Amino acid sequence: MKLHFWKIAKSYNLADYNECLEELRELNPDATIAFTSYNPRLFCRAYLNYEIKTDAITSNMAETFHSYIINARTKHLIYMLEDIRVALMQRLVTKRQEMQKSTSVLCPRIHAMLEKEKSKAALCDVLPSSDTVFNVKYFLDQLKVDLEARKCTCRKWDMLGVPCCHAIACIFFKNKDAESFVDDCHKKDVYLRVYGGFIHPCEGERH
């Protein structure tokens, strides 16, 4: 049941969402009623606003930070804040140094995600409609890709800002680089600007 839950929640578009929901309904009608009673619009990818450029539907980011400061939270308020300040001060430097080592124009995880989509692009059949709009056949599915608007029927590209396999097939059809169609927020120079600031060191109580 847990796998069915995540399959529905992680569907990028309503067609996939409804198909997965129907699979759950056939398996357990009561579970479907329970699922829909929690207002899926608040936590399912099919309903997410694609302008944010993320597909996150969990609170993992907050939980990760909580575990990052878990030891500091056991201390007195002043010492807790000092521990958090030092940890974040070092983290900003570490993140910046790690990214400076990267040779790609994209962030490493985004680069890996793009390469995975590239491997699936070979399975797509591209039919041009205009210079920028295409019909793409992927197994039994047929989708519309608009390179200028950077949109695909599957909504994965719209939501993440990283071209899906359908879009990459069209990009390759035009003999262009997929990397240039990735949203700027996922690029190395933007990442370095985000981590470009620093937290000032503090002198000890004696000083």
Overview of the molecule:
By secondary structure, the chain is α+β, with helices and mostly antiparallel strands. The protein folds into three domains: 2-47, no CATH class; 61-103; 108-190, no CATH class. It has helices at 2-9, 14-27, 29-37, 60-68, 77-100, 108-121, 156-160, 165-173, 188-194, and strands at residues 124-128, 133-138, 141-146, 151-152. The protein has a four-stranded antiparallel beta sheet with strand order 1-2-3-4. Strand 1 and strand 2 (133-138) form a beta hairpin.
Mean pLDDT over all positions: 95
Order of helices and strands: HHHHHHEEEEHHH
- Report how far apart the termini are: 59 Å
How many structural domains?
A: 3
Residues in helix, %: 40-55%
Widest sheet: strand ordering: 1-2-3-4
Low-confidence stretches: none
Number of strands: 4
Apparent shape? flat
The major β-sheet equals: 4 strands, antiparallel
Gyration radius, rounded: 22 Å
